[in-house]
What we know:
The protein is α/β, with parallel strands linked by helices. The chain has 15 helices and 12 strands. The chain has helices at 5-18, 30-35, 48-52, 54-67, 81-86, 91-118, 144-148, 164-179, 194-204, 230-239, 256-264, 296-301, 303-309, 322-331, 333-336, and strands spanning 23-24, 71-73, 123-125, 128-129, 136-141, 185-191, 212-216, 243-249, 271-274, 280-282, 287-289, 311-314. Strands 1-12-9-8-7-6-5-2 form an 8-stranded parallel sheet. Strand 10 and strand 11 (287-289) form a beta hairpin. Helix 4 (54-67) packs parallel to helix 14 (322-331). The longest helix is centred in the first third of the chain and has 28 residues, at 91-118. It is globular and about 60 Å long. 53% of the residues are buried.
Amino acid sequence: MGLSDGNLHTFMSDFVSKCGGVAVIDGGLATELERHGADLNDPLWSAKCLLTSANLVRQVHLDYLEAGADILTTASYQATIQGFEAKGFSREESEAMLKKSVDIACEARDIYYERCRESSSDSGGEGRTLKHRPILVAASVGSYGAYLADGSEYSGDYGDAMNLEFLKSFHRRRVQVLAESGADLIAFETVPNKLEAQAFAELLEEGINIPAWFSFNSKDGVNVVSGDSLTECAKIADSCQKVVAVGINCTPPRFISGLIQTIKKVTAKPILVYPNSGETYDAELKQWVKKSGVTDVDFVSYVNKWCEIGASLVGGCCRTTPNTIRAICRTLPARSVSISPA
Length: 342
């Protein structure tokens, strides 16, 4: 959908208001797919399921909607044209799979709305929420480091030879395809450095007609993972008219409050936070270190504090589940009345 500059300005704040003051983002997709038995040991990561398990992706999206999520992020985080071509697919096939990631999420939303129409109450039993409400589909765009599949989205170190034009060229067509796919907005996620934030901001000015959010990650609670200043990164997001929210994802919960305070100093745009479970990712083993994170109870104990100090969109990233999202919905005062107990 195309938006005027005026509508862009209030796009996310209007949506948050319709959600009761806080919008809930879904939780981890790839780790949830793995929990259902998908094998994601592949450079395409969750995007592999676009090829092999579309029904499973759709089901996980539905699980999050029934847990209370207001925003679905697509299975395109690690889906790049270059990554698909390396697997032997043509440019046209690669672009079709990007669009498919959005189609699957939109289908899940349609199925959910149909279930809401068929339900006699807001509760579907077993902790399921069947409440007709505004739901956004956010087309996920991971960083160049995510495409490399070497964990460099957690370091932001792309080498001294990296430059702005290379990153713009790498992401350009992918962003164009996703912008034209029927998604409501683009989610630039786990942005690890200032250079890539600038590349995304400049790409958005190349005729992209849907809004976006920028979400950075941090491993020290002060800077983004590359060591670049979060303040400087957030300023880039703030200065880009197409960016309608800015925040943090895939970062331990204990760091989030301080990072919200940092972002608040440089932007009046809605702030989003969707941390991981606090577990540590081992880039060499390509797996999360078990028992290094927090429980759902501990995760959710932070949520109201985050909202009190400025977050208006809250969800989860890696290793969080529909149960995490259900618990977030229950703890939010404006939403708890409509969420039935499990």
